[in-house]
Design a protein that fits this description.
The chain is built from nine helices and 15 strands. The chain has 330 residues and is of the alpha/beta class. The protein folds into two domains: 137 residues, 3-Layer(aba) Sandwich (Rossmann fold); 171 residues, Dihydrodipicolinate Reductase, domain 2 (2-Layer Sandwich). The N and C termini lie far apart (40 Å). Helices cover 35% and strands 28% of the residues.
Length: 330
């Protein structure tokens, strides 16, 4: 079987905690090379996890002819720069969410992918978990009736001034880090796009990042709301209400990789808990991305989805400043 050799830019905590082990269990891809601005850190990761190649720089890694694709878990403000460089070097790119700092940067990335004819995909891993695919099937087959509203709550408590999530110029803040999930989830579940948004955002006085962000998205046929926070107890849940029932996703995004995921479905016939086999969404995402590359098939997630999510984020920012509804032009 052909095996896609991934090169990774940076040794992030995210990479160590969530990516390295799943890739060791996949048959169609492998973590083959790594680069960091701190080469000693990259060498330590390579030694610990048997990564064959340590490049001296991001540029060297991208230029290597023995690497098939690039994974980018860099801070948000570096996504566009390095994705475009990789695409121009002929390397397919799997780029962490959110794909860029705003819609304008996203369009530049899409233009680079179109011009080079090289695949690019945003790494929204949750969509690959069997739980989410099952929930969307429940909705699409009208088991809870017509959708009325969706509410997402997602929070953690991270006040560290040194963490990249608390550095505004790096694309930090709750809206970019976890609000992007809440926006994406409503769009994914409803298979539609919000027409307008209104929001309320509170900012940290010291670092300027958003620490409490709330928004209401008007889809026309339904409403979707969310609250995300970087200064609250760690918590996450998605509630989906229809005309004939409801669904609760108990741990929607940071789904445990060693525990069965749980969804509660309630209808006129009663309530049932649906358990799912243990699954690693990141591993499934890398497998399906690699499969698409091997088969020269379309990417599992289209770039239009990444752009539309960023357009909503931009509109939410604008609404917070104007204190008004903001229409979204796709």
């Amino acid at each position: 079987m052909q095996k896609i050799k991934f090169g990774v830019l940076s040794v992030s905590n995210h990479l160590i905690k969530r990516i390295i082990l799943p890739l060791q269990n996949l048959e169609n891809c492998e973590l083959y090379a790594i680069a960091s601005r701190d080469k000693e850190k990259a060498q330590m990761a390579a030694d610990d996890f048997s990564i064959p190649v340590v490049a001296d720089s991001y540029e060297e890694l991208i230029a290597r002819t023995d690497i098939d694709a690039i994974y980018i878990p860099l801070p948000n403000h570096l996504h566009a720069e390095w994705a475009i460089k990789a695409l121009k070097a002929g390397k397919p790119v799997l780029c962490e969410k959110p794909i860029a700092m705003d819609a304008a940067e996203t369009r530049k990335m899409i233009e680079a992918a179109d011009e080079t004819k090289v695949p690019l995909m945003e790494a929204f891993m949750y969509k690959f978990h069997p739980m989410w695919r099952h929930v969307r099937d429940i909705i699409r087959t009208n088991q809870i009736g017509t959708l009325s509203f969706i509410h997402t709550t997602f929070s953690y408590n991270n006040p560290s001034p040194f963490n990249i999530r608390n550095i505004a110029e790096y694309g930090g803040g709750g809206l970019m880090d976890i609000g992007c999930y809440a926006i994406s989830a409503a769009r994914f579940l409803s298979s539609s796009e919000p027409k307008r948004v209104i929001s309320l955002i509170a900012y940290d006085d010291d670092n300027g990042t958003d620490i409490h962000s709330s928004a209401l998205m008007d889809f026309g046929h339904l409403r979707a709301s969310f609250h995300v926070s970087t200064r609250s107890e760690p918590f996450q849940k998605v509630d989906i209400i229809g005309s004939a029932g409801s669904i609760t996703i108990h741990v929607p995004f940071n789904t445990y990789v060693d525990t069965r995921a749980l969804v509660t479905v309630s209808t006129g016939q009663g309530s049932r808990d649906v358990h799912f086999p243990i699954a690693d969404a990141y591993g499934i995402m890398f497998r399906e991305f690699s499969e698409a590359l091997i088969n020269k098939a379309p990417m599992p997630l289209p770039l239009s989805d990444a752009l539309n999510n960023m357009l909503v984020i931009d509109a939410i920012r604008e609404s917070a400043e104007s204190h008004k509804w903001v229409d979204i032009a796709y």
